[in-house]
Amino acid sequence: VKSTSLGLNMSIQLFPFQPKPQNAITIAVSSRVLFNMEKEQQIFEQQGMEEYIKYQVAHETESFSPGPAFSFVKALEAVNAQLRELYPESEELFDVVLITNNHANVGLRLINTINHYQLVIERFCMTGGNSSIGYLKAYHTNLYLSADPDKVHEALEAGIAAATMFTPDKMTEVSETQLRVAFDGDAVLFSDESEQIYKAHGLDKFFEHEKAHENKPLDHGPLKGFLEVLGKLQKKFYAKGHRMDCPIRTYLVTARSAASSGARALKTLRSWGLEIDEALFLAGAPKGPMLEKIRPHIFFDDQMFHVEGAAEMGTVACHVPYGVAQRIVRKGGKETSPVVK
């Protein structure tokens, strides 16, 4: 029996019922973000598939250590526990699906690790190297997290909210009772319309454009839908009198300036019928220090230098490769997706 942030006592079932995919908020995670599989990935890259499978089978009784998505998944489970207490019959819950291109022979080690940590993950897709897009669509996926930027790009092209997750050098301690999700605005929640103006014409033209279009809502970005489902769940807690101690909290962390370009962002959210709990307009200042104070389980941004800055300060950050700024680093004259170590 655990006490939650709502002050409720509940018994967490070992095998709670699974909601139907069409009713659930489906979060698909790859095995490489849920668990730390760096050593195994090196074996695969250096020695090939057969040696990789042999190693996994030989070590299948050894649990993987947690990866960058682990705390996020645990927070989803904590929210589910509180939703079940307030709405026992509802299937409007987070449903975590493990998506991996691993061979099925590796499945036993993954299952053993999930059981070791008592994670509530009943749905697996082990695709044996094939594309996972069809499975993501079949599960009505609301968010897909992977360590592979190519798979993330493929998912975004298919209209699925997705992001590449990186492992910070140090992991900031995060809440076990409140899910905290932080979003950048442009090219994440919103389209990259305004960012295109900034990239093409500079800051002054950007401010002019935003002022002239202040009352015209921005088009939606790739993660608008995920914010929508979070807001829908928040309203279920509000309806039971838990606005002030809601176990879901959302943040807008943007490089926009409040006075010169913040109004359009807030008016866009309002036009969509969405609320954001906290909005931080940083006017170009680094996001890492603010995120260190927020301590989100996950942060989404379209620009790698913000992702890197967040990761350097211990935040689990995800790159959304969408819009005009998705490739900003050049190596040997070629565009490339940078890697956070």
UniProtKB/TrEMBL annotation:
GO molecular-function terms, A-Z: 5'-nucleotidase activity; magnesium ion binding; nucleotide binding
Biological processes per GO annotation: nucleotide metabolic process
InterPro entries cross-referenced by the UniProt entry: 5-nucleotidase
Pfam families recorded: 5-nucleotidase
Gene Ontology, cellular component aspect: cytoplasm
Domain of life: Eukaryota
PANTHER family found in the cross-reference section: CYTOSOLIC 5'-NUCLEOTIDASE 1 FAMILY MEMBER, CYTOSOLIC 5'-NUCLEOTIDASE 1A
Protein's name according to its UniProt entry: 5'-nucleotidase, cytosolic IA
